[in-house]
Design goal:
Pfam family, one (chain A): Fer2_2
Number of helices of chain A: 6
Order of helices and strands of chain B: EHEHEEEHHHHHHEEHEEEEEEEHHHH
Largest sheet of chain B: 5 strands, antiparallel
Number of domains of chain B: 3
Distance between the termini of chain A: 62 Å
Radius of gyration of chain B: 19 Å
Strand order of the largest sheet of chain A: 2-1-5-3-4
CATH topology of the largest domain in chain A: Ubiquitin-like (UB roll)
Strand order of the largest sheet of chain B: 4-5-10-6-7
CATH superfamily of the largest domain in chain A: Beta-grasp domain
Helix content of chain B: 25-40%
Largest sheet of chain A: 5 strands, mixed
CATH architecture of the largest domain in chain A: Roll
Structural class of chain B: alpha+beta
InterPro entries (chain A): 2Fe-2S-bd, 2Fe-2S-bd_dom_sf, 2Fe-2S_ferredoxin-like_sf, 2Fe-2S_ferredoxin-type, 2Fe2S_fd_BS, Beta-grasp_dom_sf, Diverse_Oxidoreductases
Bound molecules: flavin-adenine dinucleotide, FE2/S2 (inorganic) cluster
CATH architecture of the largest domain in chain B: 2-Layer Sandwich
Shape of chain A: elongated
Keywords (chain A): 2Fe-2S, Iron, Iron-sulfur, Metal-binding, Oxidoreductase
GO molecular function, one term (chain A): oxidoreductase activity
Oligomer: heterodimer
Distance between the termini of chain B: 54 Å
Strand content of chain B: 25-35%
Protein name (chain A): Carbon monoxide dehydrogenase small chain CoxS
Protein backbone atom coordinates (compact mmCIF):
# COMPACT_ATOMS: atom_id res chain seq x y z
CA UNK A 1 0.00 0.00 0.00
CA UNK A 2 1.21 3.47 -0.80
CA UNK A 3 0.66 6.91 0.69
CA UNK A 4 -0.45 5.78 4.13
CA UNK A 5 -0.17 8.56 6.69
CA UNK A 6 2.97 8.13 8.80
CA UNK A 7 0.93 7.29 11.92
CA UNK A 8 0.55 3.71 10.70
CA UNK A 9 3.36 1.41 11.87
CA UNK A 10 4.28 -1.99 10.48
CA UNK A 11 6.00 -2.95 13.74
CA UNK A 12 4.44 -2.30 17.12
CA UNK A 13 6.11 -2.33 20.54
CA UNK A 14 4.15 -4.10 23.24
CA UNK A 15 4.67 -4.87 26.92
CA UNK A 16 2.35 -7.42 28.49
CA UNK A 17 2.35 -10.26 30.97
CA UNK A 18 2.18 -13.84 29.76
CA UNK A 19 1.56 -16.51 32.40
CA UNK A 20 2.51 -13.98 35.05
CA UNK A 21 5.81 -12.89 33.51
CA UNK A 22 6.50 -9.55 31.86
CA UNK A 23 7.23 -9.75 28.15
CA UNK A 24 8.43 -6.93 25.92
CA UNK A 25 8.37 -7.41 22.20
CA UNK A 26 8.30 -5.69 18.84
CA UNK A 27 5.73 -7.45 16.68
CA UNK A 28 4.51 -7.27 13.11
CA UNK A 29 1.24 -5.36 13.00
CA UNK A 30 -0.56 -8.42 11.63
CA UNK A 31 0.89 -10.99 14.05
CA UNK A 32 -1.88 -13.08 15.65
CA UNK A 33 -1.78 -13.64 19.37
CA UNK A 34 -1.58 -17.40 18.84
CA UNK A 35 1.41 -17.05 16.49
CA UNK A 36 3.09 -14.57 18.82
CA UNK A 37 2.85 -17.14 21.61
CA UNK A 38 3.83 -20.14 19.53
CA UNK A 39 6.48 -18.73 17.22
CA UNK A 40 7.93 -15.80 19.16
CA UNK A 41 7.64 -17.11 22.73
CA UNK A 42 7.78 -20.87 22.12
CA UNK A 43 4.51 -21.45 23.99
CA UNK A 44 3.03 -24.06 21.68
CA UNK A 45 0.15 -25.17 23.91
CA UNK A 46 -2.51 -23.17 22.10
CA UNK A 47 -2.97 -24.63 18.63
CA UNK A 48 -3.70 -22.88 15.36
CA UNK A 49 -6.29 -24.86 13.45
CA UNK A 50 -8.67 -23.04 11.15
CA UNK A 51 -7.33 -19.49 11.75
CA UNK A 52 -10.72 -17.97 11.18
CA UNK A 53 -12.44 -18.38 14.49
CA UNK A 54 -14.36 -21.56 13.84
CA UNK A 55 -12.51 -24.43 15.56
CA UNK A 56 -11.53 -23.07 18.99
CA UNK A 57 -8.10 -24.78 19.07
CA UNK A 58 -6.49 -21.38 19.76
CA UNK A 59 -8.68 -20.49 22.79
CA UNK A 60 -6.71 -18.43 25.34
CA UNK A 61 -7.37 -16.10 28.24
CA UNK A 62 -6.83 -12.36 27.87
CA UNK A 63 -7.59 -10.08 30.81
CA UNK A 64 -9.73 -12.80 32.36
CA UNK A 65 -11.85 -13.56 29.28
CA UNK A 66 -11.52 -16.42 26.84
CA UNK A 67 -10.71 -15.27 23.31
CA UNK A 68 -9.74 -16.65 19.93
CA UNK A 69 -5.97 -16.41 19.63
CA UNK A 70 -6.31 -16.31 15.84
CA UNK A 71 -8.67 -13.31 15.86
CA UNK A 72 -6.73 -11.07 18.24
CA UNK A 73 -3.58 -9.26 17.15
CA UNK A 74 -0.55 -9.18 19.44
CA UNK A 75 -0.25 -5.45 18.64
CA UNK A 76 -3.51 -4.91 20.51
CA UNK A 77 -2.21 -6.44 23.73
CA UNK A 78 -0.06 -3.69 25.16
CA UNK A 79 -0.70 -3.83 28.92
CA UNK A 80 -2.76 -7.04 28.72
CA UNK A 81 -2.56 -10.14 30.87
CA UNK A 82 -2.45 -13.38 28.87
CA UNK A 83 -2.74 -16.93 30.21
CA UNK A 84 -2.01 -19.99 28.11
CA UNK A 85 -2.62 -23.64 28.86
CA UNK A 86 1.03 -23.89 30.01
CA UNK A 87 0.61 -21.17 32.63
CA UNK A 88 -2.76 -22.46 33.76
CA UNK A 89 -1.24 -25.94 34.08
CA UNK A 90 1.70 -24.68 36.16
CA UNK A 91 -0.67 -22.79 38.43
CA UNK A 92 -2.65 -25.99 39.05
CA UNK A 93 -5.88 -24.34 37.87
CA UNK A 94 -6.53 -27.11 35.35
CA UNK A 95 -5.26 -30.12 37.31
CA UNK A 96 -8.64 -31.66 38.14
CA UNK A 97 -9.90 -31.08 34.58
CA UNK A 98 -6.77 -32.63 33.12
CA UNK A 99 -7.09 -35.65 35.39
CA UNK A 100 -10.75 -36.04 34.43
CA UNK A 101 -9.93 -35.77 30.71
CA UNK A 102 -7.43 -38.62 31.12
CA UNK A 103 -9.75 -40.71 33.29
CA UNK A 104 -12.71 -40.28 30.93
CA UNK A 105 -10.71 -40.78 27.73
CA UNK A 106 -11.69 -37.26 26.66
CA UNK A 107 -8.61 -36.79 24.52
CA UNK A 108 -7.37 -38.86 21.65
CA UNK A 109 -4.93 -37.00 19.38
CA UNK A 110 -5.05 -34.07 21.79
CA UNK A 111 -5.14 -31.34 19.15
CA UNK A 112 -8.32 -29.76 20.49
CA UNK A 113 -7.49 -30.43 24.15
CA UNK A 114 -5.74 -27.16 25.14
CA UNK A 115 -8.65 -25.11 23.75
CA UNK A 116 -11.20 -27.46 25.33
CA UNK A 117 -9.52 -27.17 28.73
CA UNK A 118 -9.37 -23.38 28.62
CA UNK A 119 -13.01 -23.15 27.50
CA UNK A 120 -14.11 -25.68 30.14
CA UNK A 121 -12.23 -23.89 32.91
CA UNK A 122 -13.97 -20.66 31.87
CA UNK A 123 -17.39 -22.30 32.19
CA UNK A 124 -16.61 -23.84 35.58
CA UNK A 125 -15.17 -20.57 36.91
CA UNK A 126 -18.75 -19.37 37.40
CA UNK A 127 -19.31 -22.13 39.97
CA UNK A 128 -22.33 -24.39 40.17
CA UNK A 129 -22.96 -27.53 38.15
CA UNK A 130 -23.93 -26.69 34.57
CA UNK A 131 -26.32 -29.05 32.79
CA UNK A 132 -24.98 -31.19 29.99
CA UNK A 133 -26.81 -28.90 27.56
CA UNK A 134 -25.03 -25.88 29.05
CA UNK A 135 -21.68 -27.65 28.79
CA UNK A 136 -22.38 -28.49 25.15
CA UNK A 137 -23.41 -24.90 24.46
CA UNK A 138 -20.24 -23.51 26.04
CA UNK A 139 -17.91 -25.79 24.08
CA UNK A 140 -19.96 -25.50 20.88
CA UNK A 141 -17.18 -23.35 19.41
CA UNK A 142 -14.52 -26.02 19.99
CA UNK A 143 -14.14 -28.74 17.36
CA UNK A 144 -12.80 -32.16 18.25
CA UNK A 145 -11.81 -33.94 15.04
CA UNK A 146 -11.54 -37.19 16.98
CA UNK A 147 -15.17 -36.58 17.98
CA UNK A 148 -14.61 -37.17 21.67
CA UNK A 149 -17.51 -34.93 22.61
CA UNK A 150 -19.43 -37.37 24.83
CA UNK A 151 -16.31 -38.10 26.85
CA UNK A 152 -15.40 -34.41 27.00
CA UNK A 153 -18.83 -33.50 28.35
CA UNK A 154 -18.50 -36.38 30.86
CA UNK A 155 -15.14 -35.08 32.06
CA UNK A 156 -16.34 -31.50 32.48
CA UNK A 157 -19.48 -32.63 34.27
CA UNK A 158 -17.46 -34.86 36.62
CA UNK A 159 -15.23 -31.95 37.62
CA UNK A 160 -18.18 -29.60 38.10
CA UNK A 161 -19.83 -32.11 40.45
CA UNK A 162 -16.59 -32.82 42.30
CA UNK A 163 -15.91 -29.12 42.81
CA UNK A 164 -19.46 -28.46 43.98
CA UNK A 165 -19.20 -31.43 46.34
CA UNK A 166 -15.93 -30.23 47.85
CA UNK A 167 -17.34 -26.76 48.29
CA UNK A 168 -20.48 -28.08 49.93
CA UNK A 169 -18.35 -30.25 52.23
CA UNK A 170 -15.94 -27.43 53.07
CA UNK B 1 -3.10 -18.19 6.30
CA UNK B 2 -1.76 -15.04 7.88
CA UNK B 3 -3.27 -11.59 7.86
CA UNK B 4 -1.73 -9.06 5.51
CA UNK B 5 -1.40 -5.78 7.32
CA UNK B 6 -0.24 -2.50 5.88
CA UNK B 7 0.09 -0.88 9.27
CA UNK B 8 -1.48 -0.35 12.65
CA UNK B 9 -2.28 2.69 14.74
CA UNK B 10 -4.00 3.04 18.09
CA UNK B 11 -6.57 5.83 18.07
CA UNK B 12 -6.35 7.97 21.21
CA UNK B 13 -9.67 9.82 20.91
CA UNK B 14 -12.80 9.82 18.78
CA UNK B 15 -11.59 12.84 16.82
CA UNK B 16 -8.20 11.15 16.32
CA UNK B 17 -9.95 8.08 14.92
CA UNK B 18 -12.09 10.17 12.56
CA UNK B 19 -9.03 12.17 11.43
CA UNK B 20 -7.07 8.98 10.71
CA UNK B 21 -10.02 7.49 8.85
CA UNK B 22 -10.41 10.59 6.68
CA UNK B 23 -6.65 10.85 6.03
CA UNK B 24 -6.40 7.23 4.90
CA UNK B 25 -8.96 7.79 2.12
CA UNK B 26 -10.62 4.42 2.30
CA UNK B 27 -7.42 2.42 2.68
CA UNK B 28 -7.71 1.84 6.43
CA UNK B 29 -10.30 -0.07 8.44
CA UNK B 30 -11.40 0.44 11.99
CA UNK B 31 -10.48 -2.48 14.24
CA UNK B 32 -13.12 -3.07 16.92
CA UNK B 33 -13.60 -6.67 18.10
CA UNK B 34 -11.77 -7.97 15.04
CA UNK B 35 -14.04 -11.02 15.01
CA UNK B 36 -15.08 -10.40 11.42
CA UNK B 37 -12.24 -8.17 10.22
CA UNK B 38 -9.28 -10.27 11.39
CA UNK B 39 -11.04 -13.41 10.16
CA UNK B 40 -11.44 -11.77 6.72
CA UNK B 41 -7.80 -10.65 6.77
CA UNK B 42 -6.69 -14.18 7.63
CA UNK B 43 -8.62 -15.45 4.63
CA UNK B 44 -7.02 -12.64 2.59
CA UNK B 45 -10.49 -11.47 1.67
CA UNK B 46 -9.77 -7.98 2.91
CA UNK B 47 -6.60 -7.34 0.89
CA UNK B 48 -3.67 -5.62 2.60
CA UNK B 49 -5.36 -3.61 5.30
CA UNK B 50 -4.18 -0.75 7.49
CA UNK B 51 -5.82 -0.83 10.89
CA UNK B 52 -7.08 1.91 13.19
CA UNK B 53 -7.52 0.26 16.60
CA UNK B 54 -10.43 1.94 18.41
CA UNK B 55 -10.42 -0.36 21.45
CA UNK B 56 -8.87 2.28 23.69
CA UNK B 57 -11.69 4.81 23.18
CA UNK B 58 -13.64 4.81 26.43
CA UNK B 59 -16.16 7.27 24.93
CA UNK B 60 -17.37 4.40 22.73
CA UNK B 61 -18.26 2.19 25.70
CA UNK B 62 -21.04 2.14 28.23
CA UNK B 63 -24.72 1.26 28.38
CA UNK B 64 -26.90 4.04 29.84
CA UNK B 65 -30.61 4.80 30.18
CA UNK B 66 -30.89 8.32 28.87
CA UNK B 67 -34.37 9.94 28.84
CA UNK B 68 -36.49 7.57 26.77
CA UNK B 69 -33.65 5.74 25.05
CA UNK B 70 -31.11 3.12 25.95
CA UNK B 71 -27.75 4.36 24.70
CA UNK B 72 -25.32 1.56 23.87
CA UNK B 73 -21.76 2.56 22.98
CA UNK B 74 -20.31 1.13 19.76
CA UNK B 75 -17.58 -0.82 21.60
CA UNK B 76 -20.04 -2.67 23.82
CA UNK B 77 -19.15 -6.35 23.53
CA UNK B 78 -21.75 -9.02 22.78
CA UNK B 79 -21.15 -10.54 26.21
CA UNK B 80 -22.00 -7.21 27.89
CA UNK B 81 -25.27 -7.08 25.91
CA UNK B 82 -26.09 -10.56 27.19
CA UNK B 83 -25.45 -9.73 30.84
CA UNK B 84 -26.56 -6.08 31.21
CA UNK B 85 -29.63 -5.68 33.47
CA UNK B 86 -30.49 -2.43 31.62
CA UNK B 87 -30.57 -4.22 28.26
CA UNK B 88 -32.58 -7.10 29.75
CA UNK B 89 -35.28 -4.79 31.07
CA UNK B 90 -35.39 -2.02 28.45
CA UNK B 91 -34.52 -3.89 25.22
CA UNK B 92 -35.06 -7.59 25.97
CA UNK B 93 -34.84 -8.58 22.27
CA UNK B 94 -31.17 -7.52 22.32
CA UNK B 95 -30.49 -9.48 25.52
CA UNK B 96 -32.03 -12.54 23.84
CA UNK B 97 -30.07 -11.97 20.61
CA UNK B 98 -26.60 -11.61 22.15
CA UNK B 99 -26.14 -15.23 23.32
CA UNK B 100 -27.11 -16.40 19.82
CA UNK B 101 -24.10 -14.62 18.31
CA UNK B 102 -21.18 -16.98 17.66
CA UNK B 103 -19.45 -18.67 20.62
CA UNK B 104 -18.43 -17.50 24.08
CA UNK B 105 -14.81 -16.77 23.12
CA UNK B 106 -16.03 -14.61 20.21
CA UNK B 107 -18.67 -12.77 22.23
CA UNK B 108 -15.99 -11.53 24.64
CA UNK B 109 -14.43 -9.52 21.78
CA UNK B 110 -17.10 -8.79 19.15
CA UNK B 111 -18.84 -5.41 19.43
CA UNK B 112 -22.24 -4.03 18.53
CA UNK B 113 -20.65 -1.27 16.42
CA UNK B 114 -18.63 -3.82 14.45
CA UNK B 115 -21.65 -6.02 13.89
CA UNK B 116 -23.81 -3.15 12.61
CA UNK B 117 -21.04 -1.73 10.40
CA UNK B 118 -20.30 -5.17 8.95
CA UNK B 119 -24.02 -5.65 8.19
CA UNK B 120 -23.95 -9.39 7.66
CA UNK B 121 -27.46 -10.35 6.46
CA UNK B 122 -27.52 -13.28 8.90
CA UNK B 123 -26.44 -11.21 11.92
CA UNK B 124 -28.85 -10.77 14.83
CA UNK B 125 -28.15 -7.19 15.87
CA UNK B 126 -29.11 -5.33 12.66
CA UNK B 127 -32.55 -6.99 12.85
CA UNK B 128 -32.84 -5.94 16.50
CA UNK B 129 -32.17 -2.34 15.50
CA UNK B 130 -34.92 -2.48 12.84
CA UNK B 131 -37.54 -4.14 15.03
CA UNK B 132 -36.86 -1.83 17.98
CA UNK B 133 -36.77 1.33 15.85
CA UNK B 134 -33.23 2.23 16.91
CA UNK B 135 -31.12 5.15 15.73
CA UNK B 136 -27.47 4.71 14.78
CA UNK B 137 -25.23 7.59 15.93
CA UNK B 138 -22.44 8.27 13.45
CA UNK B 139 -19.34 10.49 13.73
CA UNK B 140 -17.53 12.01 10.75
CA UNK B 141 -15.40 15.01 9.89
CA UNK B 142 -18.54 17.20 9.99
CA UNK B 143 -19.53 16.01 13.46
CA UNK B 144 -22.31 13.69 14.56
CA UNK B 145 -25.40 12.59 12.65
CA UNK B 146 -28.20 10.22 13.54
CA UNK B 147 -29.47 7.62 11.07
CA UNK B 148 -32.66 5.61 11.56
CA UNK B 149 -31.96 1.87 11.42
CA UNK B 150 -34.40 1.63 8.48
CA UNK B 151 -32.10 3.88 6.44
CA UNK B 152 -28.85 2.40 7.72
CA UNK B 153 -28.82 -1.11 6.24
CA UNK B 154 -28.60 -0.54 2.51
CA UNK B 155 -27.57 -3.84 0.95
CA UNK B 156 -25.44 -6.93 1.43
CA UNK B 157 -22.55 -5.84 3.72
CA UNK B 158 -23.40 -2.23 2.83
CA UNK B 159 -24.54 0.52 5.18
CA UNK B 160 -25.24 4.23 4.99
CA UNK B 161 -21.80 4.94 6.52
CA UNK B 162 -19.55 7.13 4.37
CA UNK B 163 -15.89 6.16 3.98
CA UNK B 164 -14.84 8.67 6.64
CA UNK B 165 -17.59 7.91 9.15
CA UNK B 166 -17.85 5.59 12.12
CA UNK B 167 -20.53 4.41 14.53
CA UNK B 168 -20.25 5.84 18.04
CA UNK B 169 -23.42 4.44 19.64
CA UNK B 170 -26.97 3.26 19.10
CA UNK B 171 -30.06 4.71 20.72
CA UNK B 172 -32.84 2.20 21.34
CA UNK B 173 -36.28 3.42 22.49
CA UNK B 174 -37.29 1.80 25.79
CA UNK B 175 -39.69 -1.10 25.54
CA UNK B 176 -43.20 0.16 26.34
CA UNK B 177 -44.75 -0.95 29.64
CA UNK B 178 -46.17 -4.43 28.95
CA UNK B 179 -44.38 -4.77 25.61
CA UNK B 180 -43.14 -8.29 24.92
CA UNK B 181 -40.13 -8.91 22.70
CA UNK B 182 -38.60 -12.06 21.25
CA UNK B 183 -35.52 -12.96 19.23
CA UNK B 184 -35.54 -16.48 17.79
CA UNK B 185 -33.50 -18.23 15.14
CA UNK B 186 -32.87 -21.56 13.48
CA UNK B 187 -29.25 -22.56 12.93
CA UNK B 188 -27.61 -25.88 12.10
CA UNK B 189 -25.33 -25.75 15.12
CA UNK B 190 -25.30 -23.51 18.18
CA UNK B 191 -23.16 -20.47 17.36
CA UNK B 192 -23.46 -20.76 13.61
CA UNK B 193 -25.03 -17.99 11.61
CA UNK B 194 -28.80 -18.47 11.42
CA UNK B 195 -30.55 -20.03 8.43
CA UNK B 196 -33.40 -17.70 9.38
CA UNK B 197 -34.14 -15.49 12.36
CA UNK B 198 -36.78 -13.12 13.68
CA UNK B 199 -37.00 -10.20 16.09
CA UNK B 200 -40.53 -9.33 17.21
CA UNK B 201 -41.57 -6.37 19.37
CA UNK B 202 -45.26 -6.24 20.37
CA UNK B 203 -46.05 -2.56 20.73
CA UNK B 204 -49.41 -1.02 21.65
CA UNK B 205 -50.05 0.23 18.10
CA UNK B 206 -49.05 -3.04 16.43
CA UNK B 207 -46.08 -5.38 16.28
CA UNK B 208 -42.75 -4.63 14.65
CA UNK B 209 -41.18 -7.65 12.98
CA UNK B 210 -37.70 -7.91 11.48
CA UNK B 211 -36.16 -10.96 9.85
CA UNK B 212 -32.50 -11.84 9.33
CA UNK B 213 -30.79 -14.49 7.24
CA UNK B 214 -33.52 -14.46 4.61
CA UNK B 215 -32.32 -11.73 2.24
CA UNK B 216 -29.41 -9.39 1.49
CA UNK B 217 -30.09 -7.32 4.62
CA UNK B 218 -32.13 -7.58 7.75
CA UNK B 219 -35.58 -6.28 6.87
CA UNK B 220 -38.94 -5.33 8.32
CA UNK B 221 -41.88 -7.55 7.36
CA UNK B 222 -44.22 -4.67 6.60
CA UNK B 223 -47.07 -6.68 5.06
CA UNK B 224 -47.17 -9.08 7.98
CA UNK B 225 -46.98 -6.14 10.40
CA UNK B 226 -49.96 -4.49 8.66
CA UNK B 227 -52.02 -7.69 8.81
CA UNK B 228 -51.39 -8.06 12.55
CA UNK B 229 -51.93 -4.34 13.28
CA UNK B 230 -55.37 -4.53 11.68
CA UNK B 231 -56.39 -7.52 13.79
CA UNK B 232 -55.35 -10.39 11.51
CA UNK B 233 -54.05 -13.55 13.17
CA UNK B 234 -50.68 -15.25 12.92
CA UNK B 235 -51.76 -17.49 10.06
CA UNK B 236 -52.88 -14.50 8.02
CA UNK B 237 -49.59 -12.75 8.75
CA UNK B 238 -47.54 -15.84 7.85
CA UNK B 239 -49.48 -16.13 4.61
CA UNK B 240 -48.30 -12.73 3.37
CA UNK B 241 -44.62 -13.17 4.31
CA UNK B 242 -43.74 -13.92 0.69
CA UNK B 243 -44.51 -10.26 -0.05
CA UNK B 244 -41.98 -9.14 2.56
CA UNK B 245 -39.16 -11.61 2.06
CA UNK B 246 -37.30 -12.77 -1.02
CA UNK B 247 -34.74 -15.22 0.33
CA UNK B 248 -31.88 -16.44 -1.88
CA UNK B 249 -31.25 -20.00 -3.00
CA UNK B 250 -27.80 -20.92 -1.75
CA UNK B 251 -25.69 -23.85 -0.62
CA UNK B 252 -27.22 -23.76 2.86
CA UNK B 253 -30.90 -23.82 1.94
CA UNK B 254 -33.24 -23.27 -1.01
CA UNK B 255 -35.39 -20.13 -0.95
CA UNK B 256 -38.56 -22.12 -0.26
CA UNK B 257 -37.01 -23.65 2.85
CA UNK B 258 -35.97 -20.27 4.21
CA UNK B 259 -39.43 -18.84 3.62
CA UNK B 260 -40.92 -21.83 5.40
CA UNK B 261 -38.53 -21.34 8.33
CA UNK B 262 -39.48 -17.66 8.48
CA UNK B 263 -43.15 -18.64 8.78
CA UNK B 264 -42.34 -21.15 11.52
CA UNK B 265 -40.39 -18.48 13.39
CA UNK B 266 -43.20 -15.94 13.05
CA UNK B 267 -45.68 -18.37 14.64
CA UNK B 268 -43.23 -19.22 17.41
CA UNK B 269 -42.39 -15.58 18.13
CA UNK B 270 -46.08 -14.65 18.27
CA UNK B 271 -46.70 -17.51 20.69
CA UNK B 272 -43.69 -16.51 22.80
CA UNK B 273 -44.90 -12.93 23.14
CA UNK B 274 -48.56 -13.74 23.71
CA UNK B 275 -49.95 -11.57 26.49
CA UNK B 276 -52.91 -12.46 28.68
CA UNK B 277 -55.44 -10.41 26.69
CA UNK B 278 -53.98 -10.90 23.21
C1 LIG C 1 -16.93 -18.33 13.91
C2 LIG C 1 -17.70 -17.05 13.92
C3 LIG C 1 -19.08 -17.09 14.05
C4 LIG C 1 -19.83 -15.90 14.05
N1 LIG C 1 -21.17 -15.99 14.20
C5 LIG C 1 -21.90 -14.85 14.23
C6 LIG C 1 -23.30 -14.89 14.39
O1 LIG C 1 -23.91 -15.95 14.55
N2 LIG C 1 -23.98 -13.70 14.39
C7 LIG C 1 -23.34 -12.51 14.24
O2 LIG C 1 -23.98 -11.47 14.25
N3 LIG C 1 -22.01 -12.44 14.10
C8 LIG C 1 -21.28 -13.58 14.10
N4 LIG C 1 -19.92 -13.48 13.95
C9 LIG C 1 -19.29 -12.15 13.79
C10 LIG C 1 -19.00 -11.52 15.12
O3 LIG C 1 -20.17 -11.40 15.86
C11 LIG C 1 -18.37 -10.14 15.04
O4 LIG C 1 -18.13 -9.79 16.36
C12 LIG C 1 -19.14 -9.00 14.43
O5 LIG C 1 -19.80 -9.25 13.25
C13 LIG C 1 -18.18 -7.88 14.09
O6 LIG C 1 -17.92 -7.16 15.21
P1 LIG C 1 -16.45 -6.78 15.62
O7 LIG C 1 -16.56 -5.82 16.73
O8 LIG C 1 -15.65 -7.99 15.87
O9 LIG C 1 -15.94 -5.97 14.35
P2 LIG C 1 -14.61 -5.98 13.52
O10 LIG C 1 -14.33 -7.34 13.02
O11 LIG C 1 -13.55 -5.30 14.29
O12 LIG C 1 -15.05 -5.05 12.31
C14 LIG C 1 -15.99 -5.45 11.34
C15 LIG C 1 -16.17 -4.32 10.33
O13 LIG C 1 -16.82 -3.21 10.95
C16 LIG C 1 -16.01 -2.05 10.91
N5 LIG C 1 -16.20 -1.36 12.19
C17 LIG C 1 -15.95 -1.85 13.43
N6 LIG C 1 -16.35 -0.96 14.37
C18 LIG C 1 -16.87 0.10 13.72
C19 LIG C 1 -17.46 1.33 14.13
N7 LIG C 1 -17.59 1.66 15.42
N8 LIG C 1 -17.88 2.19 13.17
C20 LIG C 1 -17.75 1.86 11.86
N9 LIG C 1 -17.21 0.72 11.41
C21 LIG C 1 -16.77 -0.15 12.32
C22 LIG C 1 -14.60 -2.57 10.69
O14 LIG C 1 -13.78 -1.61 10.08
C23 LIG C 1 -14.85 -3.77 9.81
O15 LIG C 1 -15.03 -3.37 8.49
C24 LIG C 1 -19.16 -14.64 13.94
C25 LIG C 1 -17.77 -14.60 13.83
C26 LIG C 1 -17.03 -15.78 13.82
C27 LIG C 1 -15.54 -15.70 13.72
S1 LIG D 1 -7.46 -21.48 14.99
FE1 LIG D 1 -8.56 -19.97 16.06
S2 LIG D 1 -10.54 -20.77 16.06
FE2 LIG D 1 -9.53 -22.16 14.78
S1 LIG E 1 -8.78 -35.23 20.65
FE1 LIG E 1 -8.23 -35.12 18.57
S2 LIG E 1 -9.18 -33.29 17.97
FE2 LIG E 1 -10.03 -33.62 19.89
Amino acid sequence: MTDMPPDFARKVDIRLTVNGETVEARVDAGRHLVDFLRLDLGLTGAHAGCEHGVCGACTLKVDGDIVRGCLVLAAQLDGAEVWTVEGLTDSGALADLQDAFVARNALQCGFCTPGMLVAAADLLADGGVPSRAEIREHISGNYCRCTGYEAIVDAIETVARARAGTEAAA
Amino acid sequence: MKAATAGYVRATSLSHAVTLLAASKGQARLLAGGQSLVAAMNLRLAGETALIDINGLSELGGITADGAVLRIGALTRHRELATSPLVASLAPAIAQAAPLIAHAAIRTRGTIGGSLAYADPAAELPACMLALGATIVVAGPQGLRRVAAEDFFVDLFTTALAEDEMITAVEVPFAEPGERQATLELARRSGDYALAGIVLARKADGPRIAFFGVGPTARLARSAMAVLASGGDGEAAAAVLDRDLDPPDDVHAPAAVRLHLARVLLRRALAATQTGDA
